[in-house]
Amino acid sequence: MNQPTPISCQQQVIPHWRQKMPLPLLEAALILTWSSGFVGARFSMDYAPPLLVVFWRCVVVTLILFPFVARQLRQTSPAVLLKNAGIGLLAMAGYLAGVIQGIALGVPAGLAAVFANLLPMAVALLAAGVLGQKLAWQVWTGLGIGLVGVGVVTLGALAWGSAPLWAYGLPVLGTLSLAIATLWQKHLHASESLDLLPNLWLQCCVSSFAFALIEGTQGSLAPIPGMGFALSVLWTVGLSTLGGYGLYWVCLRRATATRVASVLYLSPPVTMLWAWAMFNEPLSWQMVSGMAVSGVGIWMVVRSEARQARR
């Protein structure tokens, strides 16, 4: 785990619970909360444009966290804030806008989910091709098996929609955006890395402007009165943003980018469990078998990287 590092003139203290909590438990919570975002997006579509919900999700998080982070942000240099803002734009605005806008333009949700779950492979390819990292063949094999498992889980949901051809590239670009942000955050110098809450605040703050620009050109940014819209925003604030993104960055400080991304191979089957519990969608042996295949792939990645860490 990274040691506590200075931010400006203030010493950053990594909370005790993050040091002591077992990494697999954090990763299990990450899978659960990350997959909640897809369920929240589906739920919100009945009440409001998806990007409007995402915009207000960022606004609410910004307002909630500001009293807790204002002092540390004032003591952080503009250069550090700018770098972390760039990571936030890529990780949140770039990823969510790419996937959600692709679906809004007619890309089938199942196909968009497959593109989004190329994240582990995208992180590994960028790490090897751009950063020159050498990954063991077991890691590549595990990533490949995990991707096959995702394909098995989502096979029944795959369809070619009526979206313009260029729109199919949006989820791919969104995934690539998050992969770049992941590696940038992982390799950011310790003195330039913000603590968790200031980091989340800054990401949501800059992303709210990006979503305002995108959604504002298509309609009003005013919240839609009604319980459905309010629940959609609160769901994505608590589970998807504070939970999903928060745990993603916490796990990234404890493990390699490839490992953290690879555990998200389990998000499609867990998303389907969410859908079964909330929308009474049927479960299938295909989903169970795909989850098992992805689990084998993740186990290979974790085991290989554990071996390398002991050398």
UniProtKB/TrEMBL annotation:
The chain crosses the membrane at residues 21-41, 47-69, 81-104, 110-132, 139-160, 166-184, 196-214, 226-248, 260-277, 283-302. It is a multi-pass membrane protein. InterPro entries: AA-Vitamin_Transporters (IPR050638), EamA_dom (IPR000620), EmrE-like (IPR037185). It is found in: Membrane. It comes from the Bacteria. Keywords: Membrane, Transmembrane, Transmembrane helix. It holds the Pfam family EamA. Residues 30-154, 167-302 form the EamA domain. Belongs to the EamA transporter family. This is Permease of the drug/metabolite transporter (DMT) superfamily. The lineage of its organism: Bacteria, Pseudomonadati, Pseudomonadota, Gammaproteobacteria, Pseudomonadales.
